[in-house]
Amino acid sequence: MSKQAMIFENSLTLTPVKIAKTAFWLALSSLAAQSALAQGVIGSSEASNTLVQEYCVECHNLEDYSGGVAFDLMDLGHVDQEPEVWEEAINKLRGRLMPPAGQPQPAQSEVDALVGYLETSIDTSAQTQHIGHVPIQRLNRTEFATTVKGLIGVDIDAEQILPSEIEVEGFDNIANALGSSPSFLEQYIAATRLVATQAVGTPLPKYANVFHELPDRNIGFAGGSSAARNHVDGFPLGTRGGMSFTHFFPADGEYRFNILDIDAGLYPRGMETAATMVILVDGVEVNRVEIGGPEDLAIATRDGVVGGDVILAKLAGLSANVEVGTHEVIVTFIERSWGASNNATGNGRVTGMPRIGLGVEVEGPYEPRGLSLSESRERIFICQPSELAEERSCAEDIAQNLATKAFRRPVGAEDLEWLMPFYETGRAEEGGFDSGVIELVTAILSSPDFLYRSLKIVTEEPRDLNDLELASRLSFFLWSQGPDEELIALAADGQLSNPATMEAQVSRMLTDPRARALVENFALAWLNLDELGAVEPSDRGFNNGMRTNYETEIRLFLASVLLEERSVHELLTADWTFLNDSLANQYGISGVLGSQFRRVTLEDENRWGLLGKGATLLRTSYGDRTSPVLRGAWVLDRIMGTPPAPPPPNVEVDLSIREGDIPTTVRARLEEHRGNPTCMACHGLIDPPGLALENFDVTGRWRDIDPLANATIDASTVLTSGKKLNGPVELRNHLLSREDQLPTTITKRLMMYALNREIEYFDMPQVRKIVRAAAENNYTFASIITQIVNNEVFRQQGPEEHENAIASTEIGVRSQFP
Amino acid sequence: MATFLTKKHLSRRTLLRSGAVGLGLPFLDAMVPAGTALAQVEAMPKKRAGFFYLPHGTIMNNTPFGKEVDAWTSSGSGDNFQLGHILEPMDPLKKYLTTFENIENTAAGGSVHTLNPATWLSCVRPGSGSTPELATTLDQVIAQQLGQETALPSLELATETTIQVAAGNGGFYAVTTSFSAPNKPLPMEFNPRKVFIQLMGPYDTEAERETILRKNSSILDMIADRTQALRKDLGPGDRALLSDYLDTVREIERRVQIAGERDMTGVDVPAAPVGQFEDFDEQIKMMFDLIALAYQADLTRIATLVMAAEGTDRTYEQVDVAGGFHPTSHHTNDPARIADLTRIQRYHMDHFARFVQKLADTPDGDGSILDHSMFLYGSNMGNSNQHDNYPLPEILVGGASGAMQGGQNIILPERTPLANVHLTILDRLGIPQESFGNSTGIISEV
C-alpha cells in the first residue's frame, strides 16, 4: 500500500462518533486557544494532517520508522491518545529541530498553527490529565547546609564536608538521584557532630592551630596583580588588599593570629613602604601592627632570609580576645596617601608594599573562659537551667523546640523518648549540660526525620498535600530549607492551602534574603553558569579575579530580574548590569571606579541580557577559542528549552587550527564542515545562534577582528527556518519572537526544581496552563512561581507507578551484597 | 566496656563485637558471601584490586598514520616483551604487566561520552529511564566478595569533578565508574581531604576516636530505628528507597565495628591534606598515595580511580599541552595534536607507574603488595577523534598472588568483549562466575 493510500484510509476511519468528539474538544479548547491564537492561528485537524503528511511522513512512516515514529499510522484527530509522541513533536517543532536543517521547511505560521493545534488538543482532553508521584527524598548537601544555617545559625561549606550529589539536567535536588552511599552516610554523621559542636561551642575546648589559605595567591601579591593595592569588595572602606575567612572559635578566650608571609624574603619588595595591618573580627578591630618602611626594609635587605624571619616574628602571635562562635575575620591594610609618601623608593612608582601571602593561622584558645551567648546558642538554648533539678526539663524543652523545626512536624513525648537518651549520655561527660545538648543536636540532625522529606499516606488517586507538607514543599522550593515559624504557624492553622495565602507567602518569601537560594541553586544550575572554573582561558590577561567578577555579576544580574517583579523576558533584554572597575574595563565601559559592584545602565545593546554577560560567554567557550557549537547548543537547550540531539558516534568534531594551516576564523572552519550533509543535519540547527555571538571572544570581550585569522568577524547567520540574523541583538529578538517560549522553558525547569522530579510529557498541559496564566502578569518570575504553587501538580501527590515501584523493590532487595 | 546500647539492638551488636559470626542473622547473611567461612578468607593472602580509568582512549593503531604513530601497542612476551611508548614507564615492572589487542566494548557504543565511565566496568547497556538502571560494576562485585573484612569495602576516587559539559554535564552513567547495585551509582570523591578523613577518621587522638566511635554506634542504632518507623505509611517504592538507606546504615555499623579494631602500627601516615590541590601534579599524586595508604593499612582492598574526568577540558602545562584534554583528544589526525595527546596519555602512565613501583616496594606477607594485587588500567574509548569503542586500550598489572602470568602481550580474536577481561579478573581473584556483562568466556592466556 502506498503511503498516500494509507493516509486516505486513516482519514476514512473517522466515525461519526469520533467526529462529534473532535468537535467537542475543539469547543472545550476555545479558552486555552486564546493565547495560542494571539501567537497565530490554530490549525485544524485537517490542515495539521496535511502539514504532517507533507513534511514529516517522508521519514516517520511505517517502513522507515525514523526515530521509532510512524505518523502515517497516527490520527491527527486523536492527538490525546498518544500525548507522549505528540509532546515530543511539539518540542521539536517549537525549536524548529524538525524537519532537519537542509530539508524543505514549512513557513513559521504553519508551524505555529500545527503547534497550536497539537497543544490545544492535548490540553483540553480529559484523558491527558495526570498527576505524577514524588518519591521520598533526602536533603541534598546544599539543603542540609542552608537548613542548618537557618536552624541554628552555623555556616558550613557543604562541598568540603559532604560528597557530591548526582545531578540531573544540572539540578542536584532530584529525588531519584539522591541515593545514599556509605560515604555519604559516614560523612553525614561526622557533619552533624561538627555542626552541633560549632553551634553549642566546646565546653572543654582543646587548643588548635587552623590554617586559612589565601584564596587566590594573585590577590595577595602586588607583583603581577593590582589586587593587593586595591580595596577588596566587602572590606571596610579605607583599607586595601588582604584576605577574609570565617573561623569557628570553639570557646570564649584568647586567640593568636600568625601572618605566614608578608613578602619580606630575599627580594623584600613588600617592605619598601610602611603600612598598618589590622585584624578585624566581625568588623571590629582586635589588633593592629605597623610593618614595612625603611627600618624593616633594612633588616630584610641586610639579613636576607634571616631578616625576613625577624619581620615575620612581629606578625606572629597577634593576640585577640574572641567570643565563642563562627566569626568573619578580615586581615587587611589601612590605605594611605601615596602622594605624601616619605619612603617610596625607585622611580616614583609605588609598587612595593606589605601584602599577605600564603595565608593566616589562628591558634587557640589560650585560657578559655567558657561559652558566652552566641547567635547559635541563643537559638538552641531557649532556657538555661539555674540548678541541677531544672536541667532535664530544660533539655526536653530544647529538644522539643529544635526537633519541631528540624522535623517539620509536631514533636511529642514519643519523640523525646528516643531523643533524651542522647542528652543523658552527653550530660554524663565532663562537659556537663552543654555536652548533653551537643549530643541532642547531633541526634536530631542525624535522624531520618530531619534528613528525609516524605509524603506519607498512600492513595490510589492523587491526593491533596496537607498544610504541613505544602509548607515544606514551598519552603524547600523557594529557600532550599525547611519552613520558618510563620509558615509552620499558617500550616498549623490550616490557612496555608488557601491560594490567596500561598500567593501572599510567595511574595513575602521572594523578598526575603533566603530567596537568593533560587538564584544560587535554581537559576545558575538551569543556565549551567555555576561552574565557571571549568573553562581555563589560555588568554594570560584573564585571571581568577576576573572569573570572580563574572560570578558576582551574573548572580546580581539574575537576582535583579528574578527577584524584582520583572518579566523573565528581561533576562535577555535588560539594559542594566552590575560592574566594578575591572569588569567595566573588560567590557570596554568607562566611568566605573572602585572595586565594589554597582548597577550600571548599558548603552551598548549588544551587552544587554544574558547573551552579553561574561559568565555566559566564557562558559560556552573552549579555553583557546570560541565555540559557536557550544554557544548555539546552550541557546537551544537553556533558553529555547529545545535541546539538540547529542553528537552521533564516529564523527570527527574539531575545529582547532592545525599545524601548518593558515589560520582561518572559527566560522570558516565550521562552514567547511557544514558542507557535509550529515553534519549539516544537526549543525545547520546548532551553529547559527552561536555564530551570531562571534563578536564576543572567549572571555566575553567584544571584538570586530579575529586576531588569529586576522579577519573581520561576520556574525550573520541563517536559521533552519530560513530566517536571517546578524549579531546578538537580532538573535535576542528572534528568541523572544515567540513570547511564551522562554517562559515555557523556565516553567519546565522550575517545576522540575520544585517537584524534585523530571518533567514528563503528562506534565505539559499544566506547564502550558501556568505559562498562559503568567502571561497575564507579564511573565514575571513571581507570577510563574505563584502559578506553580497553586497548581495541582504542586499541591497534590500522585499515586506511585506500581510497576516501577515493584521493580525497584526487587532491585533494592536483590542487589544489596548478594 | 561502657557502651551506650539500646535494648533492641543488643543482640546484634553484641554479636558483632564478640566477633561471633551468626550466619543466620539476615543482615550478616547479606554481608558475608554465602558459604564463605570468614576464617577461611583470613587464611588466604589479602588480594587487592584496582581500576584506573583514563578517558578519551589512547593513540594506537587507530589513526591514518597507522603503526607509525602507535604509542600504545606492545608485542612479544617474556624477555621479548616490548612496550609501546606510553607504557614505557612500566618497563622496570613489565613482568607484572599484561597487554591486550582487539578488545571492544559494545555497551558504550554510540554514546560519544555519556556512557563511557559507567559501562567500562559493567559492560552492560544502561536503561534510558529517569532512574539509574545498569548492573553492579566489576569493582563492586569484587568489593562485595573481598571487601567485607576491611573498614571500607572499596574506595571510589577521581582527580577532579566528574561533572563535565562534554560528557553530558552530569548524569548517572557519566559521573561514576562504579555502581554498587543496578540502581546505585556511587559518587567519586575528588577532595583528598575527605578521602583522608574517610580513611583515618576525623579524630586527633586515640581516646577521641574511641569516644566518637562509641557515640556513632548509638546514633546508627537510632537511625536504623527511625528509618524503620518512617517506613510505615509509605508506598512500596518509597519503602524500597528507605530499605536502601537501612542497608547503608548497616554497612556503616560494620565499618564502625572494624574501625574499632584497626591496627596502624608500621603504617606511615602522611599529613592530612587541606583540600583539593590547585596543582594537578600534586592532586593526582595525592590520590595515588591515598590508595597506596589504604592498601598498606588494609583499610580497603578495592579502589577505583578516575585519573581525569570524561570530557575534561583540563590543560596539561606539565607536558606542554596548552589545549584542553577533550578538545585535544579530537586530534583531527593532525600529527602535532596526536603528539600532544600522546604526551597527556604518557603523563598519566608516569603517575600510575610511580604508584605501582611504590606497591612493589611495600612488603606484604610473603611478597609485596603488588604481588597480591590485580589492577586494570584503561579507557572505554579507542580513537578519541571519532569516539569509537574498538579497539580499546586495556592492561592488567600485578602478581594476583600467582594467578596471573604477566610479561606478555595477548593478541585476542577481533572484537573480543571487554567483559571477557572482567570475567578473567574475577576468575583470577578467586571469584569465578559463569559470565559477566556481555562476556563470551575467560581469556585463558592471562
In helices, the fraction of residues of chain A equals 40-55%
Largest interface: A-B, 90 and 101 residues
Strand order of the largest sheet of chain A: 2-9-4-7
Report the biggest beta sheet of chain B as strand number plus sense, adding barrel if it closes.
7 strands, mixed
Tally the helices of chain A: 33
Taking pLDDT < 50 over at least 5 consecutive residues as the criterion, the unreliable ranges of chain B are: 1-43
The backbone outline of chain A, from C-alpha atoms, is flat
Query: What is the mean predicted local confidence, pLDDT of chain A?
Result: 84
The gyration radius over C-alpha positions of chain B equals: 22 Å
Give the C-alpha Rg of chain A.
31 Å
* Strand percentage of chain A: 5-15%
The neighbouring-strand order within the major sheet of chain B is 3-6-1-11-12-2-13
Strand content of chain B: 5-15%
Describe this structure in words.
The complex is a heterodimer of chains A (818) and B (446). With 818 residues, chain A is an alpha+beta fold. Chain A has 33 helices and 18 strands. In chain A, the strands form seven sheets. Chain A has a four-stranded antiparallel beta sheet, with no helix packed on it. In chain A, strands 3-8-5-6 form a four-stranded antiparallel beta sheet. Chain A is flat and about 85 Å long. Chain A starts with a helix and ends with a helix. In chain A, 50% of the residues are buried. Mean pLDDT of chain A is 84; it is low at 1-40, 218-225, 344-348 and 803-818. Chain B is 34% helix and 13% strand. A seven-stranded mixed beta sheet of chain B has the order 3-6-1-11-12-2-13, sandwiched between helices. A two-stranded antiparallel ribbon of chain B has the order 4-5. In chain B, strands 7-8 form a two-stranded antiparallel ribbon. In chain B, α7 packs antiparallel against α8. At the A-B interface, α8, α9, α14, α15 and α33 of A face β5, α6, α7, α8 and β8 of B.
